[in-house]
Amino acid sequence: MRKLHHWLKNTILKVVDFFYPPFKKYIPLQTFRYAACGGGSTALNIFIYFITFHYILHEQIVHTPFIAISAHIAAYMISFCITFPIGFYLSMFVVFPESYLRKRIQLFRYFVVVIMCIILNYLFLKLFVDVWGWYPTVSLIVATPIIIAFSYFSQRHFSFKGNVIPE
Asked: Longest C-alpha distance within the chain, in Å?
């Protein structure tokens, strides 16, 4: 298992770092790795959500013994359960490997930041759409960079405390 982990980590680093040179003048390596890993996780999340919503749940309400869950919420929960550990793995071993915190502390803090980002996204969309009357897509476009910046600095300085990767 350890060999698989090292191979996977090194392969991801080689692929991500291969695309870094054109961006070297503009952003630090760690920020580029964060953008690449976060973008990949987000794309995977959207893909899993789409497949789950349309082809697994067939856009139908999910009935559990306790509650009925709408298909779009159930699909979100399923995609979150898959991409959350992937995002944590990438953050811990690719983006912020220099963190000196214990892994369980990193995991808890990562989860807290992700939940805060979900709440912030919800609040921004409520403000922009319901209060200010903006179009939903424009609202999401405006909210996304704010949440990405919050997430990056929170993960860097809270979840995965450590030194910045030298250039």
From this structure: 56
Distance of CA 63 to the CA centre of its chain: 28
Q: What SS3 state is found at 66?
A: coil
Is residue 48 located within the same domain as residue 109?
A: no
For CA atoms 25, 166, 31, 17, the dihedral sign is positive
Tokens of 85: 């550990």
Residue 87, SS3 per DSSP: helix
Round to whole Å and give the CA distance between 76 and 74: 5
Quote the number of domains for the chain.
Answer: 2
Range of the domain at 86: 1-95
**Is the pLDDT confidence value at 137 over 90?**
no
- Eight-class DSSP state of 20: -
Q: How far is residue 104's CA from residue 37's CA, in Å, rounded to a whole number? A: 21
CB atoms inside a 10 Å sphere around CB 159: 24
How does pLDDT run across 21-35, given as a tens digit for each residue? 999 999 999 999 999
